[in-house]
Every structure is written in structure tokens, then in C-alpha cells.
Design brief:
Elements (H helix, E strand, L loop, with lengths): L5 E4 L3 E7 L3 H6 L15 E6 L5 E10 L2 E7 H14 L6 E4 L4 E7 L2 H6 L11 E4 L2 E7 L2 E7 L3 H11 L5 H10 L36 H10 L4 E8 L10 E4 L4 E11 L4 E8 H6 L2 E3 L6 E5 L7 H4 L3
Antiparallel strand pairs: 1-7, 2-5, 2-6, 3-4, 4-5, 7-10, 8-9, 9-10, 11-14, 11-16, 12-13, 12-15, 13-14, 15-16
């Protein structure tokens, strides 16, 4: 169903809210994305890093009310909330879990359903359209997140079901994989720097915003070209979905050469994103879980890495 029109609840993520007069200033010093680029019409991908540049979380962030909402994997939310609160004690910013206040739906080819709700289809990735409390966010071509306040969720779901078949979360994640958008999950927390999941290629890293936690490492990797591992898309001829963090091996190298980022069922077997060493990809001898594990086949991504373009953000 990932290739056809559908909707599904995005039950795998929660919402971290940062509100107050200092919310923007506080987050600007914490996140890889530039909050100055955000508006009522624009959201962004982003990440929060350790001092050593490893990501503790990745998310989509958008302004809402007197602050910002960050949608991230549910398994990361509690730890991120607790950690961020330590740094916010001297700021006029409050941090809360607003997961129960919002219900989010993924829409594939759902423009007509959006129009029925009074929303125009947003344009380029990151663009947002708002109407009577609803927020539509373009995430990749043909794919939109619809954010609904919890009190409107039942009615919105009924309206969506009137014009779209309901798909599964797997269908939505398969579309995310095909769009080449990686994501930090609980199992991969503090494992990758942003460029390893190509976050800079999809607008999630700003190299002009100034200092934030981990910025020195992230910038060095970009400007000095020392990144030896990055994200690739692959196919796997088995039905069992590998968990995030599952190791990928190359018998040629006699060792692990990377880890799974996210995976989903496809028409035949699975598709996945994985962070891999460049030389192991060139050898094209990749196996899941062990050197004798099932073979992985390289697939294309819908974008190319372009360091000169990326550093303009």
C-alpha cells in the first residue's frame, strides 16, 4: 500500500513541547537546525547531539502557540525531556510531554482528504499549512503529516476514512525509507552523528547558525570531509524486519561495517536504511547480522550528497 493513497496513525512517536519566552533562544543552543528558519509556514527536521556530536534524538520541529513541538520516537522522549530540563533551569522555558494532546496521521497521496478538511496541500518538504487547529506538514513528495489536537482527532480520523483507505505504520515507514529520511530510535541513541544518517542532505543541519551542543564535531566532519560512514538504502530478501541497531557485516572486511537505522516490509522482503562504511558498499558484499547472514542489495536514494550546497543552510 505504500505506493498508493492511504492514511495511518503515527503511533510510534511522541511530542516534546518547549514553551515560554525563552523557548527559541534555549533550543537554538541545543539543536542542529536553525530555529530562525521556522515559521507558521515552515517546519524542519533536526537533531540534538552530545558534546561529541552523537545524536541523542532526531525529530521534526515546528512552532506552535508560545513555543515549539518536537515529534520524535516515543522511546527517546522521557530521556530527552529529563536531560533538557537540566539545561533549561535558568531559562524562561517549560518542557513537557504533550503526546496526549496531539494525534498525528500520515497521509500518502492524500491531497483530496486535506482539501475536505479545509487544508491546501503543503508544497516543498517542511512546508506547513494550518486551519482551525489542524497542521499539515509536507515531509517528502506526496507524503504529509497531519497534526490534530486530541479533541479533534476522532472527527478528523472519520473524515480521513471517508476518502482514504487506512494503511499500516509499516506502509508509512516504507515511504520514509524510500525518501531516505533516517531517524534516531531508542536502540541507536548516541550511535550516529547527523551526517551519518544524511540529516544535512534533508535540511536537518544548519552550518551557519552558530554554536550548539556538538556543533564543533558536526562542522568538522562537514568541512574537512572526514566522514567515513553514511546512510544507504538496501533491500533484504526476508520477511523478518531487522531492528534498529542490528549490525551489518562484510565478509571481505571480516567485521561489522555498520548498523540498521530503520526497516519495513516491502513487496518482497524488506527495505531498510543503514549506516555503512563507504569501502564496504563499494565491495558490495553486505550481510545482515553476521558474515553468513542474509545478503543485502544496494538501492538508490532520491537525493545526492552535495557538501557545497549543504553548508549554505
Amino acid at each position: 500500500m505504500a505506493d498508493s493513497a492511504f492514511f495511518c496513525p503515527l503511533s510510534h512517536e511522541g511530542i516534546l513541547a518547549v514553551r515560554g519566552s525563552d523557548a527559541g533562544k534555549f533550543l537554538q543552543g541545543q539543536l542542529t537546525c536553525n530555529l530562525n528558519y521556522l515559521s507558521q509556514e515552515q517546519s524542519s527536521l533536526g537533531a540534538r547531539c552530545m558534546v561529541k556530536g552523537r545524536m541523542q534524538s532526531s525529530f521534526r520541529i515546528l512552532p506552535e502557540g508560545n513555543g515549539f513541538l518536537l515529534a520524535m520516537a516515543s522511546g527517546l522522549l522521557e530521556a530527552q525531556l529529563a536531560d533538557l530540563k537540566k539545561y533549561a533551569v535558568f531559562s524562561k522555558a517549560s518542557l513537557t510531554d504533550e503526546s496526549a494532546a496531539w494525534v498525528r496521521f500520515g497521509l500518502e497521496q492524500g491531497d483530496a482528504a486535506l482539501h475536505a478538511l479545509g487544508l491546501a496541500a503543503p508544497g516543498d518538504a517542511g512546508a506547513t499549512i494550518r486551519h482551525e487547529g489542524l497542521i499539515a506538514v509536507a515531509v517528502s513528495p506526496g507524503r504529509v503529516e497531519l497534526w490534530a489536537p486530541a479533541e479533534q482527532a476522532a472527527a478528523v480520523r472519520e473524515r480521513l476514512a471517508a476518502s482514504l483507505p487506512e494503511g499500516s505504520l509499516n506502509d508509512w515507514l516504507l515511504g520514509q525509507i524510500r525518501a531516505g529520511i533516517g531517524q534516531v530510535m531508542e536502540q541507536t541513541r548516541e550511535l550516529f552523528i547527523p551526517q551519518m544518517i544524511n540529516l544535512q542532505a534533508v535540511g536537518g543541519v544548519s552550518f551557519k547558525k552558530g554554536c550548539y551542543t556538538g556543533q564543533e564535531i558536526v562542522a568538522r566532519m562537514q568541512y574537512l570531509g572526514k566522514l567515513k560512514r553514511r546512510q544507504y538504502r538496501l533491500a533484504l530478501a526476508q520477511d523478518e524486519i531487522p531492528a534498529p541497531g542490528t549490525e551489518v557485516f562484510s565478509p571481505t572486511h571480516s567485521s561489522s561495517v555498520g548498523e540498521v537505522v530503520i526497516a519495513a516490509h516491502a513487496h518482497a522482503g524488506c527495505e531498510l536504511l543503514a549506516v555503512l562504511t563507504a569501502d564496504s558498499v563499494e565491495d558490495d558484499n553486505l550481510h545482515l547480522g553476521s558474515p553468513e547472514g542474509p545478503r543485502l542489495t544496494l538501492l538508490s536514494l532520491p537525493y545526492e550528497l552535495d557538501r557545497d550546497r549543504e553548508i549554505q543552510r
